[in-house]
Design brief:
The chain is an all-alpha fold. It has a domain of about 120 residues. Helix content is about 50%, strand content about 5%. It is built from 14 helices and four strands.
């Protein structure tokens, strides 16, 4: 059977920044009243790819066909849609799809799901929560009712996060944020919430917020400033060198105390993510010291 040539859809819409490929195709189907999965079949790279309904990548979906149907240039699609981005760029995005800011995409013709960068936590323009945890499951429940103006430090935290990315680079900060997130989950499960987190939750939900899960929006917001601050020192070469050396490691623990307002923090179990992170630094440090020692011996023997 000869396939008919593709042509532009009657109604088109540009992709939102960091929109997933699945979300974009579903949205075009919805606004053009097409059957579910129609565009998935029309844009498949091959007959074999048509059978892979759960895979929305550049391997299974032909960007040229999407460009024809949407009327959007391929270069724009590559920049906006995560499924067409290079692997190294996708690594810097949150693993979970999350709804875009509803006020930013209110004319998009339906729900827009995005894989935001790790630093993108709130829409600064509309002051709404759009992000969640850096790893694991997305945040639970509705969050549009939360008045983020009650916790203005969350917005300054996002600006601070962007500054850290410019200083240390996307990959380093993405890795540091995941470790920081793991540490906060570990700490909360064993010791309870930080005092500062309790204060923010009270401001958001009142004096009797009830029981909150670790994925609830208010809980995720409550420790965000400390989360980013901890990620900042995990990414900083200065603090990495201090943490790697046993003789100066106490200073690193004191800095965590200062950030979190704890008193006398020190990893006491091997399950502590900070303990694992420090262990990952030690072989690198020993290797560096060995090279310097080798060089000194060679120099002295000349």
């Amino acid at each position: 059977m000869i396939e008919q040539p593709l042509r532009r859809l009657p109604i088109t819409s540009p992709p939102a920044p960091y929109e997933s490929l699945e979300s974009y195709l579903s949205r075009l189907e919805r606004i053009n009243h097409l059957p579910l999965g129609a565009l998935r079949r029309w844009t498949a790279t091959s007959a074999k790819a048509k059978a892979k309904y759960n895979q929305f990548t550049s391997v299974t979906i032909d960007i040229a066909k999407v460009s024809i149907l949407s009327g959007i240039p391929e270069s724009t699609l590559r920049q906006a849609i995560t499924g067409f981005m290079p692997d190294e760029d996708r690594r810097l995005l949150q693993p979970q799809q999350r709804p875009a800011c509803p006020r930013c995409v209110h004319r998009a013709g339906g729900a827009v799901l995005c894989r935001h960068p790790f630093h993108y936590f709130t829409c600064l323009r509309h002051r709404t929560l759009v992000g969640g945890r850096a790893w694991g499951h997305p945040i639970e429940g509705p969050h549009s009712h939360l008045d983020l103006s009650l916790v203005p430090e969350v917005f300054s935290t996002q600006r601070r996060h962007r500054q850290l990315i410019r200083r240390y680079g996307h990959p380093t900060m993405a890795d540091a944020l995941v470790i920081s997130e793991q540490w906060f989950e570990y700490f909360v499960q064993r010791h309870g919430m930080l005092n500062r987190s309790r204060t923010r939750i009270t401001r958001l939900l009142g004096p009797k917020p009830g029981r909150l899960s670790i994925d609830s929006p208010a809980h995720v917001i409550s420790y965000r400033p400390e989360l980013v601050s901890l990620a900042g020192i995990l990414a900083a070469p200065h603090w990495r060198a201090i943490a790697a050396a046993p003789e100066t490691r106490a200073r690193f623990y004191q800095e965590i105390d200062r950030i979190t307002n704890l008193h006398g923090y020190e990893p006491i179990t091997k399950q502590d993510p900070i303990h694992h992170w420090i262990q990952s630094l030690e072989p690198r440090r020993r290797s560096t010291l060995a090279r310097f020692t080798e060089f000194d011996e060679l120099f002295q023997n000349q």
